[in-house]
Amino acid sequence: TQLLEQSPQFLSIQEGENLTVYCNSSSVFSSLQWYRQEPGEGPVLLVTVVTGGEVKKLKRLTFQFGDARKDSSLHITAAQPGDTGLYLCAGGGRSGGSNYKLTFGKGTLLTVNP
Amino acid sequence: GAGVSQTPSNKVTEKGKYVELRCDPISGHTALYWYRQSLGQGPEFLIYFQGTGAADDSGLPNDRFFAVRPEGSVSTLKIQRTERGDSAVYLCASSSSPEDTQYFGPGTRLTVL
């Protein structure tokens, strides 16, 4: 059983479209992070959310942490080809455990076509 | 400044052989982590070092896997008697403390034939 379920697994859209990807769990996390990973590279941190209900914006990206700290979403407005990549969510401090021990989802592979 | 570096970038070995994977963390980062990412999966935690000591090795899959960090900087992940199931990308990350952001290296792609 995957502790963090990400959906959809694959998403292919046209430049300019909006999209939302989801990260869901039955466990409570102290923090939730979103990373983007490109082929041959390690994950790069986009954002960390720590408070239930928190919303953070990073240019065209909006991140939300669920009130119960079990789920999160990432919304991209007017997607661009440069947004293409694997989007990973990772939870820290699962069920009160150590924050450094990140639990990752399988990721959403996003392709934005010009 | 320099990020986390890992060598080699690719390693092909035969079943049963021994391999060593190296990680150079960001200078000054006391916390270092190893993760394994299998095809189509997210990274999976293996081990965490604080300084020279392995503070949490609960993610190591079995006793064929071992990691060291003798001087509190560079770390080496060692895999004995490699199996085909060990094929994956091995990622290293470092942070200034265990509560801070983890910065990942590019990984070493290990292929066991």
Describe this structure as you would to a colleague.
- The complex is a heterodimer of chains A (114) and B (113).
- Chain A is mostly beta strands.
- Chain A contains no helices and eleven strands.
- In chain A, strands 2, 4, 5, 9, 10 and 11 form a six-stranded mixed sheet that branches. A five-stranded antiparallel sheet of chain A has the order 1-3-8-7-6, with no helix packed on it.
- In chain A, strand 6 and strand 7 form a beta hairpin.
- Chain A starts with a strand and ends with a strand.
- Chain B is built from no helices and eleven strands.
- In chain B, the strands form two sheets. In chain B, strands 2, 4, 5, 6, 9, 10 and 11 form a seven-stranded mixed sheet that branches. In chain B, strands 1-3-8-7 form a four-stranded antiparallel sheet, with no helix packed on it.
- The A-B interface holds A 4, 40-45, 48, 88, 90, 98-107 and B 4, 31, 33, 35, 40-45, 48, 56, 59, 91, 93, 95, 98-99, 101-107.
| Element string of chain A (H = helix, E = strand) | EEEEEEEEEEE
Query: Mind summarizing the main beta sheet of chain A?
Result: 6 strands, mixed
Number of strands of chain B: 11
Strand content of chain B: over 45%
Oligomer: heterodimer
Number of helices of chain B: 0
Mean pLDDT over the full residue set of chain B: 95
Topology of chain B as a string of helices (H) and strands (E): EEEEEEEEEEE
Q: Look at the helices and sheets of chain A and give the structural class.
A: mainly beta
Distance between the termini of chain B: 37 Å
Shape of chain A: globular
The number of helical elements of chain A comes to 0
List the chains of the largest interface with their residue counts: A-B, 20 and 25 residues
Low-pLDDT stretches of chain B:
none
- How much of the sequence of chain A is in beta strands? over 45%
Which bin fits the share of residues in helices of chain A?
Answer: under 10%
